[in-house]
Amino acid sequence: MGGGAPRRAKSVAKGGGGGSSSAKRKVSSRDEEAGGDGAAAGSAGSVPKKPRREQASVGKMTSGIKNKIARSELYGKLKHVRALEKKKLRVARQKAHARALEAGETPEPRQVPKTIENQRVRDETFVEAGDDEVAEEDAEDEFASYFSGASSPKVIITTSRKPSGEMFKFLENLFSVIPNAYYYSRRAYHVQEIVKLAKKREFTDLLVFNENKKFSHGARVNGLLHVHLPDGPSCLYRLSSLVLTKKIRNHGRATNHHPELILNNFSTRLGHRVGRMFASVFPQRPEFNGRRVVTFHNQRDFIFIRQHRYMFTEDFKGAKLQELGPRFTLKPRWIQAGTFNTKEGDYEWVHKRHEMDTTRRRFHL
User: Fold this and answer.
1) Into how many domains does the chain fold?
2) pLDDT tens digits along 196-216
3) 3-state DSSP assignment of residue 138
């Protein structure tokens, strides 16, 4: 009985070995046939497969280690080795570039990394430089009188009902950004009523800032309604990433000079319209003595708003920036033709996330 089990195991092993060898012969013969067919298909013009990446990531190389301490130590060592390799390649490229310039030769073009911005999908509304049709529209739109100097902006600022102390701190910072701005208490007025009063007093823009009502978690400014007077348009934004001036490190104090305005990366027809709407809030006669700059930078349909003062060096060969604050970000929700009217208003554009944001490489501004 004791010697039967080994004989059975031996026979099973033999049978398994014979089966595996025959299976290997069958597989090899099939592979040869498939290889021949693949070669014939390749000669017929089939698309070759993309080669796999030669070097795995550090995370994949260390993911099989269960001990957290050993995994983190190996991860740090491998990251350090990868960083040294990248530095060697970078130094070698820089030296080759310098040698080519010294020899009077044309150096190799620098590699441009792929980003979401430079891989952007352009649609038919993209505005090219020197577009005559856009220039004609700009000469006849609602903001033409401000850019021609025929009228000057006069802005009324209000809030949602029962504003908190955080809202007033934000407005205190905002008045240092927007010239010719006046605050009026909201009280129990509706927005349509404020629009009528603002038209009678010849205001050109209405800014209504909203905040959430969860005072147990702290009030937070989270929205902006911008109504251009007297005939619109109106635009609603989501406001986020608010940082007040006192929380900005090494911030400066803004002066009363009219700022210079920078509108960056508003590339489509819609973005061009939004940019002109922002520009109409500021006087078109900047006072360069104040060295103030207000920037509206659009990136992936998020509008980053910053205020700086540029300071020249002692030899006047360079300059540096000092942030004045506040800083916050706007995300457009919809644009409506005419003044604010949620019941009968005609919407020019509405952001529908599930329908419009089907790819990360398509932007609307």
Assistant:
1) 1
2) 999 999 999 999 999 987 655
3) helix
Burial class (CB in 10 A: 0-12, 13-18, 19+), 354: exposed
Helical spans, DSSP H, in the chain? 4-43, 58-62, 68-102, 132-138, 144-148, 165-174, 191-200, 269-279, 353-356
Q: Is the Cβ–Cβ distance between 176 and 230 less than 8 Å? A: no
> C-alpha distances in angstroms, 48 versus 36, 37, 44, 53?
15, 14, 12, 15
For residue 193, tell me if it sits in a domain: yes
252 with 218: CB under 8 angstroms?
no
Q: Which domain holds residue 288?
A: 132-356
Q: What is the pTM of this model?
A: 0.72
C-beta separation of 257 from 233 below 8 A:
no
Block residue for tokens 């050993």:
70
Report the alpha-carbon distance of residue 207 to residue 253 in Å, rounded. Answer: 23
Instruction: Quick: pLDDT tens for 8-62.
Output: 444 334 444 444 444 444 434 444 444 444 444 444 444 555 555 567 888 888 9
21 has which bridge partners? none
- 288 secondary structure, DSSP code: G
Residue 5 clears pLDDT 90, i.e. is over it: no
Residue 161 domain-assigned?
yes
Domain membership of residue 18 (yes or no) is no
Say how far apart CA 138 and CA 273 lie, in whole Å: 9
**Residue 48 lies inside a defined structural domain of this protein:** no
- Identify the CATH number of the domain in which residue 143 sits: 3.40.50.10480
